[in-house]
Write a structure and sequence with these properties.
Blueprint (H helix, E strand, L loop, with lengths): L9 E4 L6 H9 L5 E5 L3 H17 L10 H5 L2 E4 L3 H7 L9 H5 L11 E6 L6 H10 E9 L4 H4 L5 H8 L9 H17 L14
Length: 206
């Protein structure tokens, strides 16, 4: 009788900073098998490692009582890489690290392929990451996008920049926040249409 292999469920926090969101994913979603916490800044990666070690021993409880904090934190893998490059890298077949990468301190683990969830929360617009993200998320996967450049898409002060980034012009009025959400969705749909299709699930202006 063959042993049942649980399905994988992987999440990428592409611009992780201190890794707090990746920690919450690992602690609060019991069926997650791997969370990748990525940032280009080496000091951010060091903060991630410190936070992971702290939460292995100091977290009071997880959502699933059967999942210990140590086990939850063990699901987090830290990467120090350009987010776009990392997402493009998962498009090739999974392969082991080279001896040189392993000698530089990187894990010998195989790359896991496309992610079931990709979370993009950059400082500013997420548009430069969209092409890589829509390809690196698995079929039926979830792409979470945050854009914090409200001065561009929710005002009329940077109309040309808004058009160059999002493919449309901002509007002024009580419906401007709905219009800005539609601009972000349009930019995402345009990126996705090159290789696949997207369906919006939830859109919210904070």
């Amino acid at each position: 009788m063959k042993a049942t292999i649980p399905p994988k469920f992987t999440i990428l926090d592409a611009l992780s900073a201190t890794g707090l969101r990746a920690l919450r994913y690992a602690l609060e979603i019991p069926f997650v098998t791997r969370t990748t916490s990525n940032d280009l800044d080496p000091s951010a990666s060091q903060s991630m490692h410190r936070n992971i070690q702290y939460n292995k021993t100091h977290t009071a409880k997880t959502i699933d009582p059967a999942l210990t904090p140590y086990a939850a934190m063990s699901k987090i893998h830290v990467e120090t890489a350009n987010a776009t490059h990392h997402m493009y890298s998962v498009l090739s077949p999974p392969k082991p690290r080279t001896e040189e990468e392993y000698a530089n301190g990187e894990s010998r683990e195989h790359r896991f392929g496309k992610y079931d969830v990709i979370d993009l929360d950059p400082f500013g617009t997420a548009v430069p990451f969209l092409d890589a993200a829509v390809q690196a998320v698995s079929d039926g996967g979830l792409l979470c996008i945050t854009c914090t450049d409200a001065g561009v898409w929710a005002s009329t002060g940077y109309s040309e920049k808004c058009f160059s980034l999002y493919g449309g012009m901002p509007v002024k009025g009580e419906w401007s926040h709905e219009a800005c959400l539609r601009l972000i969705l349009y930019a995402t749909a345009t990126a996705a249409a090159r290789v696949r299709v997207m369906e919006d699930t939830i859109a919210r202006k904070a």
